[in-house]
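Contributing new records

If you add data, match the layout below exactly. Sequence lines come first and carry their own label; structure lines follow with theirs. Keep one chain per record. Anything else will be rejected by the validation script.
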Amino acid sequence: MSALPPLPAQPDGVAWPTQEWPERKLAPAIAEKLQPLLDKAFSDPAPQDMGETHAFLAVQGGQVVAERYWTGFDRESTHHSWSQAKSITQALIGILVREGRIDIHAPADVPEWQSPDDPRRAITLDQLLRMSSGLKFAEDYVDAGVSDVIEMLFGSGKEDVAAYAAKSPLIHTPGSAWSYSSGTSNLVARAAARACGASGDAFREFMLRELFEPLGMRSAEPKFDKAGTFIGSSFCYCTARDFARFGLLYLRGGIWDGQRILPEGWADYARTPTPVPPTERLGYGAHWWLGMAGPGSFSANGYEGQFTVLVPDLDLILVRNGKSPNEKKDLVMDWMGEVAGCFRTT
């Protein structure tokens, strides 16, 4: 496995965006290449190959260099995270690792699996974070008749998403097969709450105190089920600028303005590849995707084209929120790659 590209430090003289984002103008050569891509994404009516783009933000060197919004949206508008919440859940586990309250290589704390003859009791938190638990879970966003994720979020599982996910049977040896699953993320979120000894409003306070408030993510609104579990697979609303703050935390290796939020090496853990099937377009790390904007890039991805993409070699963050048909997601990812390419010099 090739070495991970280094993560850039915050440039000298650039303020951390805890209160406000520093801004600067793009170099004319980059702006000239970027403009037609943004014009396409924000055209009205929306382009059929992308759907609606509601927000776009580019941050380079810790400064906002490009920003645009769809009609009816602005920098104060919050957007659906969908599965970007999985990467936020990974950060919460990291904070608990830093505090010595959780061990990702120990069996996951799932009460439903504790019978001595239950093979699932051996599944580790690391295997859940890497989507390699071996559990059966149908991640289908269209067919409500066969979709575990629809049933979990909107059907019989919605009041206790982790309990629903915990019913998933084991169909592969843990660690032997990769399969993307929102159910595992909600098991991870509940395990985090159990390690905290808090759920519901008390766990929300933990999220605010330890993650959102230090970064200045004042818009962040996580959603919980009736059992008090953060729905860490899918639901944390934020502004585009706050998604960029979250991205900057990882691009800076878990440090924020001199304070270590995530344990040393946690961002590298997030972007260390997990074996995935050859049919997968992107690589996968630990609740983060890999490679959308070229080798070394990693991203928090959500349904309908929600993306926070980090490109370490360019010290670049790209945020895109919108409403794109699921069958067009590859074309939206192509567009994100093209946008990143505008920042590369020949």
